[in-house]
Amino acid sequence: MEEQRIATDSLSESVEATTGTMEQESEAIHYDVNKYERPSVTVDVVMMSLRQRDLQILLIKRRSWPYEGMWAIPGGFVNMDESLETAAKRELQEETGVQDVYLEQLYTFGDPGRDPRTRVITVVYFALLDSERLQVRAASDAADVGWFSVYELPPLAFDHAKILDYTLNRLRGKLEYTTIAFNLLPEQFTLRELQRVYEIIHHRRLDKRNFRKKILTTGILEDTGAKKMEGTHRPARLYRFNPAAEHKL
């Protein structure tokens, strides 16, 4: 009897599972894709670099409406058959010629009135890198491309001023718990050069003694044993990033 009961229970469960699957398939077949309005999705790519002792961002001049002739963050619409990251890399290459850079997803902006064309939600990607490694040019989707100080920006299209303000605040916060600042330095650097990166991003002077004490106690740096002349000062020690100590920040 017990074996018969178990078999009956198993059969019931199998029938219920099959019925459930059939109901789901039926619902999928009859699902109305037009039941809800569908907003468009775009990606925007914030590319920042240290240039001329300033924190600068790569912008493109828009070729067409809306905001024709205005400067904007590189970006565009996501195709139905591509991922967000793929779209971000494609748009960056199409508008600036830049490719093969590591992008980090930063934030999503979706105010209903942010784009006059339609309801558009944008996913913002971010990269902080050495501009000397980039060959930028105005590609097919942009009238011009150029680097601008984040502290002296031209009038920007859409809500891109808001996006850049958010990005700068996030960047400043990430300095405290990540190694993102090392993306802006050569492989070997002095403590003075490292402090300058922090000062440019924070847009203020930092106390030399406190900064060096904090950085050196983390163990994040390795002394290379080499030195470098900095102006009329005595030779300064050259350090490099110690990836084994990254968790100490």
UniProtKB/TrEMBL annotation:
Gene3D superfamilies: Nucleoside Triphosphate Pyrophosphohydrolase, Winged helix-like DNA-binding domain superfamily/Winged helix DNA-binding domain. Residues 40-171 form the Nudix hydrolase domain. Signal peptide: none annotated. GO terms for molecular function: hydrolase activity. Residues 7-23 have a biased composition (Polar residues). InterPro entries: Nudix_hydrolase, NUDIX_hydrolase-like_dom_sf, NUDIX_hydrolase_CS, NUDIX_hydrolase_dom, WH-like_DNA-bd_sf, WH_DNA-bd_sf, WHD_NrtR. Residues 1-26 are annotated as: Disordered. It comes from the Bacteria. The keyword Hydrolase applies. PROSITE patterns: NUDIX, NUDIX_BOX. Keywords: Hydrolase. Belongs to the Nudix hydrolase family. This is NUDIX hydrolase. It comes from Reticulibacter mediterranei.
